[in-house]
């Protein structure tokens, strides 16, 4: 058999089914599902590692029904307590514009 005819015969061998477009589509679907599943976890991990400069506000009530707004400032690493939302807003505005 001549080398050229062997080459011609090898060219006519059909591609295996595993390499067809269907498996590429299945891999693409699995990859898309994995990304969608991991995206929230990765976002939380990045937020945890990078930290945040935003204020964290917690509303608390004592046994007499008095409301207190407790604010944690991650920049100064301090907690501040306010008796009204208006006081909290004034303090937050002053902090932002300083």
List keywords for this structure.
98 residues, 2 domains, alpha+beta, rod-shaped
Blueprint (SSEs and pairs):
Elements: H1 3-11, H2 21-50, E1 56-61, E2 67-73, E3 78-82, H3 85-97
Antiparallel strand pairs: 1-2, 2-3
Task: Describe what you observe in this structure.
The protein has 3 helices and 3 strands. With 98 residues, it is α+β, with helices and mostly antiparallel strands. The protein has 2 domains: 33 residues; 42 residues. Strands 1-2-3 form a 3-stranded antiparallel beta sheet, covered by helices on one side. A hairpin with a 5-residue loop joins β1 and β2. The protein is rod-shaped and about 95 Å long. The protein starts with a helix and ends with a helix. 0% of the residues are buried.
Please outline what is shown here.
The protein has 98 residues and is an alpha+beta fold. 53% of the residues lie in helices and 18% in strands.
């Amino acid at each position: 058999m001549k080398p050229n005819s062997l080459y011609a015969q090898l060219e006519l061998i059909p591609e295996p089914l595993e390499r067809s477009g269907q498996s590429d589509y299945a891999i693409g679907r699995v990859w898309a599902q994995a990304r969608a599943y991991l995206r929230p976890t990765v976002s939380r991990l990045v937020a945890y590692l990078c930290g945040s400069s935003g204020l964290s506000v917690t509303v608390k009530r004592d046994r007499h029904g008095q409301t207190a707004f407790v604010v944690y400032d991650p920049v100064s690493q301090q907690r501040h307590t306010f008796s009204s939302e208006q006081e909290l807003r004034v303090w937050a505005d002053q902090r932002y514009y300083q």
